Amino acid sequence: LNLNENEKQELKEFFQEKKWGVKEFKWYADVIKFLKHGDDFMLPKGEIGTAIRCLGGNPSEAYLKQLIENNCAECEKITFLLFLRLSNDVLQNEDPKALSRAFNKFDLNKDKFITPNELQHVLLNFGEKLTDAQAKDLIDKFDLNNDGKLCIQEYCRATVSLPLL
To answer: What's the CA gap between 140 and 153, in Å, rounded?
Structure first.
């Protein structure tokens, strides 16, 4: 990331406040990498909804429009730190049942786990094509028990960094 000293400090404070580590950083960074255009590490404003949905959120279009107007109406791209703040606010304001519903959208075979193949399929429906390696890498980032898939607790931790239930 190409950050100035103030941005580095803000990012450090944000991660300390959320008690996030490298896995959480990589999870959010990977979403930006998949959706960004160009060499910078910024998210096109029009991709914020897709990015939040990739993280498991389900904001309405009206809510996204308000979010953009209130935080980045004049910008074309969203910085990594602003993306972290906006997506975290959206995800934390969703009710716990919304997280369960979002998990169920990824759990296509209803076995209570999200596999790399299921992740690929769902993200393809959002217009994002992942290779097998990319899907495995995304799962591995939050697969705390190293079984190659995400359970609901790991999914919740990945989306809103809640302690394991």
So the answer is: 14
Q: What kind and span of H or E run contains 1?
A: none
Q: Alpha-carbon dihedral of residues 109, 154, 148, 36, nearest 10 degrees?
A: 90
Which CA distances in Å does 12 have to 21, 27, 98?
A: 10, 16, 29
* Distances in whole angstroms, Cα of residue 151 to Cα of each of 64, 82, 88, 98: 28, 28, 20, 16
Q: d(Cα 86, Cα 12) in Å, to the nearest integer? A: 16
CA angle 63, 13, 157 (to 5 degrees): 60
The pLDDT tens digits for 91-116 are: 777 666 667 778 888 999 999 999 99
- HSE-CB at 14 with a 13 A cutoff on CA atoms is 19
57 in Cβ contact with 159 (< 8 Å): yes
39-85: pLDDT as tens digits? 777 888 888 888 888 777 778 888 888 988 998 888 888 888 888 88
Using CB atoms within 10 Å of the CB of residue 85, give its burial: 0 to 12 exposed, 13 to 18 middle, 19+ buried: middle
120 CA to centre of own chain: 15
